[in-house]
Amino acid sequence: MDPVAEHRTVSRVVGILEVVARARRPVPLSVLAAQLDAPKSSLHGLVGGLLHRGYLSEIDGGYRLGAGAHALLAPAGSSLPLLLGESCAEIAVRTGETVTLATRVGDRSVVYVHSEPSAFEVCYRPRLRERRPILPTSAGKLFLAHDDDRDSVLARADEDHRRRFLTEIDSIRASGMAFNRGETVSDLGAVAVGVYEDDRLTAGITIAGPLTRVAERLEYFGGLAQEVLTADGFSRHGRQPS
């Protein structure tokens, strides 16, 4: 690739992110083109790539920073971790297991952005701020179960993971809990529940530990986490009256 053209592409991608980051409302493609002094046709593909990778999201006819920008580029201790840190800490204390805050990034990825440690020496220690496939993670199952456009994601998924998810989807939607029982790591079990803001699923909280210890307690952990999130105002219908 011509170095000059390559640098222009990098400059435009960075420019798109900077314009959107400064804006107080979604930025239409026409505004991006005007502010970057670039043809809409040349920006369209770049915007599409940023949408696909989760660095932009499309809303109300314009673009805002997506989950990828917050989960992968923001400093630790910002955004969702600040908002949900106390909820995660309470769940970790009451379950004794590792509690992790997860967000969906792009079409196919889940990123863990915060973790509260287990009280046990033998426990799950997640890697933060790394993309991982949306299936078969418990948080990924939760996001997919509430995604009306999941077919394109499932079409690219591992066949066994896709088949198993399709047998679980009705239960996930009914209970608000998604499980991973040894599908990623043979002796690891996890349950994920949803974090809602204005009745919109924005993140997932997972409780995970060795299957030998948590296998019979995952549903209890999920219910406990839902109770904490409801009390803190992050359930599907907000804070319950006291």
Describe this structure in words.
Helices cover 46% and strands 22% of the residues. It is an alpha+beta fold and 242 residues long. It has two domains: 3-65, Winged helix-like DNA-binding domain superfamily/Winged helix DNA-binding domain (Arc Repressor Mutant, subunit A, Orthogonal Bundle), CATH 1.10.10.10; 75-231, Beta-Lactamase (2-Layer Sandwich). The longest helix has 20 residues, at 3-22. The N and C termini lie far apart (62 Å). 36% of the residues are buried.
Largest sheet: 6 strands, antiparallel
Q: In the residues, how many domains can be counted?
A: 2
CATH class of the largest domain: Alpha Beta
Helix content: 40-55%
Summarize the structure.
With 242 residues, the chain is α+β, with helices and mostly antiparallel strands. It contains ten helices and eight strands.
Summarize the helices and strands and which ones pair or pack:
Elements: H1 3-22, H2 29-36, H3 40-52, E1 56-59, E2 62-65, H4 67-73, H5 80-95, E3 98-105, E4 109-116, E5 131-133, H6 138-145, H7 151-155, H8 159-175, E6 177-181, E7 188-197, E8 200-210, H9 211-214, H10 218-231
Antiparallel strand pairs: 1-2, 3-4, 3-8, 4-5, 6-7, 7-8
